[in-house]
């Protein structure tokens, strides 16, 4: 007998019929003797509806507050009740909980709260009484007893946190895809589902644009060593197991495990800034003060002792970034400020890159073969990311997928056909 925490997203519980299908899946696990805690999201589209209602009521320019979170948390409550009804109709004993009822305590950063503590006693007692616990994801309660929400995708984090609190055998994330793929199958038809991937690789994939899992949930799972499995609510299968690096060392590690990409990128360049100590801070300080996240950064020093400073931001922050820099350009002594939104980021990820030199060169060679110009580059131990023109995104992904033979299982790849350039 095992203890599982299962999480079902908005599409998985989007209609009464789908909620019944979820109840059938839970019933199967219970009848095999397993203890099951279930975390649910709001039905698909419900959170957006609630946001629209809030927008009609709140004062112009008001930020997240406890009132907003009180409204937003109601979507999951509906799903909890409906799923409990569906389970009991099938003869499965169930009990529903909101975040505060199951002891999920957060800070008071409303709209993006972080879990600080979980009192697992109520949940453990429920499971020990052979009862399925159905829990509202995405929410908790502050020390001042205010309902809080964890931000978009917070139900994944709820599930992982509860799995860590009760030492579950596995946290199973049910979604509308049947696992983690080497890249998006909509871009590369030969993309292959991965049987396993490490937390480190999954964290990189999530941060680089893969939408399968929320980043915070992967961080949480890795920190507390919670085995995490991505499965489909609609297709039977084993999904993809996300686990610790040392637990898959017996398997042959591929050079590259996957390709991630992100279209939501914009590039900004401020030119001719005097190259003096503190120049980078004077440029990025105001950007940070405006609560704008900066990703890739490149600085070029010219012979005339000036610097061109280029960095990327999310497209939604592009206009604000340009406004901030233009307002500071004269103070900075810059010649010009320009930018573009016609770029994207493409990344290769794999723990096998640690022990093989030349992977980056092979990536650059593959892109050059397709006449794709690289505008920016950043690297880490297990990833290489490049910024290219967005119109070449699909061509780049397919070229890299082919050169690293990602359509094949690691054991079936012919390393002699993968040009590793030193």
Key terms for this structure?
globular, Carbamate kinase, eight-stranded mixed beta sheet, VC0802-like, 422 residues, six-stranded antiparallel beta sheet, single chain, alpha/beta
Descriptive account of the structure:
With 422 residues, the chain is of the alpha/beta class. It has helices at residues 16-31, 46-57, 66-72, 74-89, 121-128, 154-165, 199-207, 215-224, 279-289, 318-332, 359-369, 393-403, and strands at 3-8, 35-40, 94-97, 104-106, 115-118, 132-136, 139-141, 147-149, 170-175, 196-198, 228-232, 240-243, 258-274, 297-301, 306-313, 336-349, 376-380, 383-389. The chain folds into two domains: 3-176, Carbamate kinase (3-Layer(aba) Sandwich); 247-422, VC0802-like (2-Layer Sandwich), CATH 3.30.2130.10. The mean pLDDT is 90. α9 (279-289) packs antiparallel against α10 (318-332). A hairpin with an 8-residue loop joins β4 (104-106) and β5. The protein has twelve helices and 18 strands.
User: What structural class do you assign from the helix and strand content?
Assistant: alpha/beta
What is the CATH domain class of the largest domain?
Alpha Beta
Name the poorly predicted regions: none
Please summarize the sheet with the most strands: 8 strands, mixed
**Which percent band covers the strand fraction?**
25-35%
* Count of distinct structural domains: 2
Tell me which CATH architecture of the largest domain applies here: 2-Layer Sandwich
Instruction: Find the CATH topology of the largest domain.
Output: VC0802-like
What fraction, in percent, of the residue positions are helical? Answer: 25-40%
Distance between the termini: 51 Å
Helical run tally: 12
Q: Shape, please? A: globular
**Total beta strands:** 18
Gyration radius from CA atoms, angstroms: 24 Å
